[in-house]
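Re-run with default settings, no changes from the original entry. Doing this only to confirm the output is reproducible before filing.
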Amino acid sequence: MLLCVIVLLVLVSLVVVLTRGASKPLDVHSPAGVVQGYVTAVVNGDEDTARKFLTDVDDKRCDGYESVAPERNIRVALVRTTQHEATADVVVSISYSNVSGPFGSPEYANEESFELDRVAGTWRISSAPWPLLVCADEGFKP
C-alpha cells in the first residue's frame, strides 16, 4: 500500500513538472499579448514574424545595428501594463541564465519596458528594449 502511494506521488509530480513549462497565451489584441507574440518570435529567432508587431516608426537605435536573436538563455515575465487610449507601456522582467562572472552567478534579471501605440485600432510596438530589439528592414512597413 505504501509503495502504491509513493508511486502515485512520483507520477503526479512528474505530470506537474512536464505540463507547467508553457506560458498561457494572452489576448493577442491587448498590449501584453502583442509583447508576448513579439518576444516569442524574437526568442525563436523569427525576425520576420517579430517585425509584424512593430510600428513603422524609425528607431534611431537601429542605425548600424544588425538584428540578432538573443545569444543567451532568457526568460521574460510580464510585470505590469499601463494602458491609455492610444499608447501603452508594458514592463517585463528579463532573466538571463548561464551568466558568467567572478562569483559564477547563474542568473541575472532586470526590468525593461516596451512602448506601444495604437495604429489603425491595433496595438504595435514603437520601442522595444535593447536585449530584444529587432529592427525593421529598410523600406519595411508592417
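The CA atoms of residues 45 and 141 lie 20 Å apart. Residues 2-19 form the longest helix (18 residues).
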